[in-house]
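Predict the holo structure. Ligand: 2-acetamido-2-deoxy-beta-D-glucopyranose.
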Amino acid sequence: MTSFVIFLGLFLLVFCHDEMRQLLDSNCDDYLEERVTSGTNARPGTTPWIAAISNGTNFFCAGTLVHPRFVLTAAHCIKNNQQFLVSLGMYDITCPEEKCPEIKNYDVIKAIHHPHFNDFTNENDIAILKLSVEVVYNEYIRSICIVTGDGLKTSSIVNFSAYGWGATENLYLSPILKTINLSHTPQSCLRFYEESQICAGAERGDTCHGDSGGPLVANITYRGHVFPTLIGVTSYGSKFCNASANYANVTVFRQWIKNTISAYNYDEDKESLLDENCSSTWDKNGSVHEPWKLILTTRFDGSNDFHWFTFATLITNRFVLTIVHNLPTDIKKLLVRASGGVSFTVKSAHKHPQFTDFNTSYANDIALLELDRNVRYSQNLAPICFRPTLQMSENPPTSLTVIPFAARHTLHYENFTVIDRYHCCVTIGLVIYENQICVNESSSGLYAGCVFGANEYTSSGDKFFLHGIVSFRKNDVIILTNITSYADWITETVNFK
Ligand SMILES: *[C@@H]1O[C@H](CO)[C@@H](O)[C@H](O)[C@H]1NC(C)=O
Ligand SMILES: *[C@@H]1O[C@H](CO)[C@@H](O)[C@H](O)[C@H]1NC(C)=O
Ligand SMILES: *[C@@H]1O[C@H](CO)[C@@H](O)[C@H](O)[C@H]1NC(C)=O
Ligand SMILES: *[C@@H]1O[C@H](CO)[C@@H](O)[C@H](O)[C@H]1NC(C)=O
Ligand SMILES: *[C@@H]1O[C@H](CO)[C@@H](O)[C@H](O)[C@H]1NC(C)=O
Ligand SMILES: *[C@@H]1O[C@H](CO)[C@@H](O)[C@H](O)[C@H]1NC(C)=O
Ligand SMILES: *[C@@H]1O[C@H](CO)[C@@H](O)[C@H](O)[C@H]1NC(C)=O
Ligand SMILES: *[C@@H]1O[C@H](CO)[C@@H](O)[C@H](O)[C@H]1NC(C)=O
Ligand SMILES: *[C@@H]1O[C@H](CO)[C@@H](O)[C@H](O)[C@H]1NC(C)=O
Ligand SMILES: *[C@@H]1O[C@H](CO)[C@@H](O)[C@H](O)[C@H]1NC(C)=O
Ligand SMILES: *[C@@H]1O[C@H](CO)[C@@H](O)[C@H](O)[C@H]1NC(C)=O
Ligand SMILES: *[C@@H]1O[C@H](CO)[C@@H](O)[C@H](O)[C@H]1NC(C)=O
């Protein structure tokens, strides 16, 4: 019965397109035929996801490769250490480089522990290490599978295997990777947290010091293949390593793992910003200041007064971004106003060449305006952050933040849910293009040209990044132009002088 339930879950995972994406790394199950053998010990090549963690000289913990760029381990492993080296493809720790060319060492550029890790109770004892470069998978090195969807019921799994180079009965670290079969023994651990910790043990033997951070694995079978799946992370046990031990329950942390990897999965070398001096005055208390926000005013025929008609966003010291529709053809009628009475005339307007409003929703509703002179940055006037190169983030944002135009200063932000293109199209009765984003409506003062963005991690701290600008609204939906998808056009236009 148990295995039937698991089988069914995996069937859905494997055969239903949408569900398949619920593996953290879909390349994890690309197993070689001969791997699926049973053995009584860890054998070279059967555990391509095991990681040995050292400080360069001394080995102290194990970990598990879960993604080409990330290794999962225990938070207590990284607590007192500053420097980490991850070795993959490792079986015998003492094997010299020339005899074991399959062993590859990776520097760790970021160690992220769970924000609620409790040193004393070992609650949330889980951490992620970001490697300096992406790992190339081979026979000896490959990620383990982690089910990030809801398809796997781990509570019914009775048998596990744990792996590590930890202390053996005679209390020395083992040079050879050891494995032990454990069973789920929920009653025999002193646990503080029922759900987030898994208790497992064996008649004889246990995981021990040095095994920390290593994997607790269950073999899950489908289509005749064994599918080793990460269920737990070795956390802590008894002093003498002769009783059941606690493992962090990976299922509980799957969302944190997924989100952390997607937030940190960018290439440092390519972390370029369109304007490195972009501002992000984002206060912890939720108030935001938008030094990039400009007001576009226009002069109507026969009048000398300029009237507000839309918003524009400063993206470099010479260019502002706005929407095309209802932009006057005569740029002499435009005046760009910034706070403090500063204003600019427009030297040239660059409407997107494929802009169209032909009886549909506006396609490519984006324009760049070149100002008459360079902007002098100040606390109240600075460009928004924007990445000219696409990040490797696997998941598009599901929520975007906007600062509603209610008052001019210290404002609070709102988060809006991104609606999928299909539902958006049905709701508004218009074609929705690839480069548009729909978000649900609110009563706040949102006008054409308003910025939607997200707070994102960068090497110099969190910054607010531009994602979309309001194009139009209909039937309680706001349609944004997805600015990210115009990165190339923006970069070209801005750099062509
Ligand atoms: C899982 O499969 C591997 C490889 O066949 C084997 O070494 C390990 O003992 C198995 N673990 C369990 C709990 O069956
Ligand atoms: C662990 O269990 C598996 C499956 O029951 C078995 O094939 C393997 O030999 C066992 N390994 C050890 C080290 O006892
Ligand atoms: C690694 O840790 C050991 C033991 O704590 C220490 O003696 C050694 O100097 C450390 N090595 C480096 C490179 O920090
Ligand atoms: C791990 O957490 C999941 C999700 O909360 C839960 O369903 C499962 O029972 C837990 N596993 C164990 C072995 O306690
Ligand atoms: C768990 O392991 C034990 C001992 O190896 C074995 O007898 C039992 O059949 C296994 N249970 C499952 C569900 O694989
Ligand atoms: C574990 O080992 C210690 C020290 O040898 C001993 O006092 C204790 O009874 C053992 N516990 C179990 C569960 O075997
Ligand atoms: C960014 O600011 C630094 C220091 O204020 C300045 O030297 C540099 O020229 C600025 N860069 C741009 C592109 O404005
Ligand atoms: C939020 O922070 C800003 C600037 O740090 C401050 O002016 C404002 O009073 C704070 N608001 C609240 C509600 O604490
Ligand atoms: C769009 O225009 C075409 C051609 O003029 C027309 O056949 C079609 O009905 C229009 N669609 C909508 C939704 O107005
Ligand atoms: C915006 O476009 C980029 C590039 O095409 C895409 O990666 C991203 O997921 C889109 N954003 C949304 C919210 O759809
Ligand atoms: C809009 O988003 C809010 C916040 O996520 C949600 O509560 C609300 O149900 C959504 N409305 C629609 C129409 O989707
Ligand atoms: C709203 O979005 C901001 C920025 O993207 C994020 O920091 C914050 O946690 C979100 N707040 C909520 C309640 O989701």
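Residues 1-21, 32-41 have pLDDT under 50 and may be disordered. The first helix runs from residue 2 to 15.
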